């Protein structure tokens, strides 16, 4: 097992094991609020992932009872952190700071898995939505709660939400700001799997490691193909698929995978003789 020490500071703990980069939000006193410091700590690691050949999957989780409670309401009241200054200054800070997470997560070449425990609300809900796959504990709750505070999703969550649950449901969740439990989140596709709270880390890590075992070049291409196909025409998708497949068919990973498959099949036959 290869494990590397923390690379992101105390707010975001970082380690690599079996090709899985685990990023742990670690600011329990404020519910892992997405303030400037948390944003920078998380973005600094995420922006390096695509150049790391030791990382085949990212697992995003929390060390505390909540995944992420979004913006800090006390900071909003005092006008500090992300909210300080005039309109132009706040807009520029959102674009340069908070949106780094959005761009980095959406731009990951490798798949991302999110383990959601407790509350994922406001920008915290959006953070979970930016990941490719979400596994949640049965105690998780989700909310696009911005209108409760007279706000909209400033981190781009509406783009992800509509693609995951559809236009009408995205509007319902946004305009009601209602909290939905884990069962409801599973029913509308926000999460892929529910597990007991005590099993969340084990299940999420198992899924991430299963994904990370795939041939790394093919893994990155497979994610990109599905992501691009969501917004592309069929002819464009077919052209992309043909190009990727040709590269992979002529590559080392494919040949090694075929050899392994045939060896495993032969071993199974010998075992039944």
From TrEMBL:
Which GO MF terms does the UniProt record name?
catalytic activity
Q: Which InterPro entries match?
A: ClpP/crotonase-like_dom_sf, Enoyl-CoA_hydra/iso
Instruction: Name the domain of life.
Output: Bacteria
CDD domains attached to this UniProt entry:
crotonase-like
User: What PANTHER family is this protein classified in?
Assistant: EG:BACN32G11.4 PROTEIN (PTHR43459:SF1), ENOYL-COA HYDRATASE (PTHR43459)
Q: What is this protein called?
A: Enoyl-CoA hydratase
Q: Which organism is it from?
A: Caballeronia hypogeia
